[in-house]
Amino acid sequence: MSYLPTFRLFFAKGVYNDYRLWNGRVEFCQNGGEWRTLDDSDVELHFRFKTPVSKWLRDHSITVKHSRANRTKQKTNVSERASSFSK
């Protein structure tokens, strides 16, 4: 059995959110409900607002793969590489 990195965030009145890493994705459930996969924009919001979840993700070497900043950087890198080959 392999270890699943998990994180529990507590709120007032006994409410809690659980987060886990599963198959390279971030999953979430509230108060022991059903798990759902967070899409990239959900994860990006955690990073943008510097939530405890984003700290936990950073501690587990998870990054937002498709954030606007990363897409821009990737396009720039691809353009730079393409122009260097054409010279």
Short structural summary:
The chain is an alpha+beta fold and about 90 residues long. It has one domain (about 5-85).
- The coarse overall form would be globular
Q: Provide the β-strand percentage band.
A: 15-25%
When the domains are counted, the total is 1
| Rg for CA atoms | 17 Å
What would your notes on this structure say?
Strand 2 and strand 3 (25-30) form a beta hairpin. This protein is 41% helix and 23% strand. Strands 1-2-3-4 form a 4-stranded antiparallel β-sheet, covered by helices on one side. It is globular and about 30 Å long. It has one domain. The longest helix is centred in the C-terminal third of the chain and has 19 residues, at 68-86. With 87 residues, the protein is α+β, with helices and mostly antiparallel strands. The protein is built from 3 helices and 4 strands. Mean pLDDT is 79; it is low at 74-79 and 81-87.
List the SSEs and their pairings.
Layout lengths: L5 E5 L5 E7 L2 E6 L5 E2 L2 H9 L3 H8 L8 H19 L1
Provide the descriptors you would attach to this structure in a database record.
87 residues; alpha+beta; four-stranded antiparallel beta sheet; 3 helices; 4 strands; globular; disordered C terminus
